[in-house]
């Protein structure tokens, strides 16, 4: 190859060096220049094209750095051997993903709904503005893996005042949501854990434990929560519980059962309780029940809390409190992992809590949710001859249990769906082995339906329940 | 127990029901009320205390809900059996954590530094304000597990224009930092993977693979990166590489080696390449080299990128592009996990990129870093008789290799430390088995030092290097 048939275009806005680079690259890709072939010298090409030699040099350097050609001292530039020819495909590949719209329902009584209308957006915006104005540069630097110390201090104080939790900031790990923290906990505890979970339970937590390779032991519940007898007879070394308001049954675990669990955990070194305190902020009768962790003297409770339920799901900020003996595990197995929460978000939330806005907001929301809760119970009165209500007075959903077994859960869900109301059957949250499921067909099989109300207005609750009443009549 | 010795205080601001609740609870905890003992009826106690019966009822209900007492129909309230007595400890436990200050160094030539002074804070603040003003409510709701579709569309377009990456939004997963995405990748790929890594490599990635239970196979490098011969002879099914600017060596992988790697991956179904494109935005000569993913026609490259390096470490937003065959794995193993990035942060970053601010900022930073880079190379001229420079023209650090083996890496690091300049030895990023380490004592062992310059001003770079020159004289 003695000459290059390049035609440079000085009008199209593309740098000359790039036109040369692109031309030669294409020739190589299309096999017109072969491996080992010598390119014209930079001087010769510059003269041929009537341009500065440095322009050609720049093009050649780019080709060298991308490995298309190589420079051999005193000899010149040669095309590199390239095993297989790939090239950039510049096809337009951006397509819209299908977003599944659930237009078909009038009302969705999801237990995961929350109300955002009363959120103090203007306060949040003001704090955001102040945080960005005051902190500027340092807040853009990487923070502590556990979360910023000021924020952890604030969480400590909040947990102590509102949940009775005793801990030091070093025990707190801030993370981007409960899912992440459960994944992290898998790393902290290490392999081969056997986790007892109530049946029914929070299925998302279960799936995450499964991805951590843990054995799941589903235990029956009685009216006080996880069966302590079954736990004792199991091989489990960890029990995952939600004492404040069990999901999905709504059971509030009484102090006696809590003590039994703490005693069980204290009996062996590697035993722990995971307390998921996901919606403890909302209790409508009497004062809040302290966390299980508050009664733990033996460093056995791993406490998990979140701001995603009490502020907004989009706020990806949760936290866990590790008992001190697990801090060494954390340092060894997970301490090197960077924090998953932006320092800006930490600073905003820190100010929101420390300045008392969070408490005020919780009080406001408790009032709003209590009113919705009471409205729901009122609307459920016509259901009382056929259904028993449980799980009320706390959290954001209740459970309806059919008093007779004439009707199945599936029928209730389907009838509601036909009337365009979405309700959730308890079985979604249950674990059954096939054998049990078969034998249960012959047993009394009580239909149970979850009714979430947080995301609907009182008017909507009344409307949805009156539709449901007719649908189930 | 026939009578309660409660003295109510109407002046202390504590609700009467709470005083009753607290009194009875304490009596139970202190063992003064025994299990099975009957409490006075609500009517009797109300009369005794001269208060409304509903107040006593509220106290009793709270005790019932916490499990201290139970209500027996037609019989009254009884103290529950409680196995072991725990109680809340209200000690003040908030202590300041020790924050290790590295005051002892004048200059830290860390390869992880970045410059934040040129960041367009006012633009960022404005976008934040607009996002919070416009989106309000819906932005506080939980988003798509992979990240919001608008944001993934924007990332797609950006990757296509700037890195030559071909992908669809459905292939993109947004996550809170590279560490998180590598953890997630561990879930997506599943167990029993054998990962080939260059020696030296990015140790954090290695540790995360180890926590996922993966076998790590450390392979030697030549001037083009990972040795393809060693890779072929290994049992590895995954290769982790940084083709744009390998960390820590600074090697830019030429097209030939890239093609060999793609060919290797295409030979077997379960083989994949993980391309960590951590600092590809910064290239100071010619135009950016397209990503390896851009040459991948066989769906073999898992591409990882981050905004933590190019914007700010505190911005916990990274992303990965999964090849289409892995989308099924993602859905099955990890698709249920919630997003770890706040939708507000996604919306802000989306606007920052889509409105062209990101491109302008990168161009500005490229200029600033190029100037620092050139300043460093100038300041390194006096070192040229004893050290070889490599890894220049891209990224945010270079490597100095001692030409003679009179001096060890340890000596260089120590001498620098005595002169209050922190430098980083290559061995920090290397994996050596003991046997190798022993045999290497007899071999030529070239001292290599990383010099990061991004976080220092040009004046500081000159100053630090002149100190280093004297320290190493």
Question: Describe it for me?
Answer:
Two copies of one chain form a homodimer. Chain A is built from 15 helices and 17 strands. Chain A has 473 residues and is an alpha/beta fold. Chain A has three domains: 16-93, Arc Repressor Mutant, subunit A, CATH 1.10.10.10; 142-355, 3-Layer(aba) Sandwich (Aspartate Aminotransferase, domain 2), CATH 3.40.640; 361-471, Aspartate Aminotransferase, domain 1 (Alpha-Beta Complex), CATH 3.90.1150. In chain A, strands 4-12-11-10-9-5-6 form a seven-stranded mixed β-sheet, sandwiched between helices. In chain A, strands 13-14-17-16 form a four-stranded antiparallel β-sheet, covered by helices on one side. In chain A, helix 5 runs parallel beside helix 11, helix 6 (178-189) runs parallel beside helix 7 (203-211) and helix 12 (357-379) runs parallel beside helix 15 (458-471). The radius of gyration of chain A is 31 Å and the shape is elongated. The N and C termini of chain A lie far apart (88 Å). Residues 84-103 of chain A have low confidence and may be disordered. The interface between A and B is large, with 110 and 111 residues.
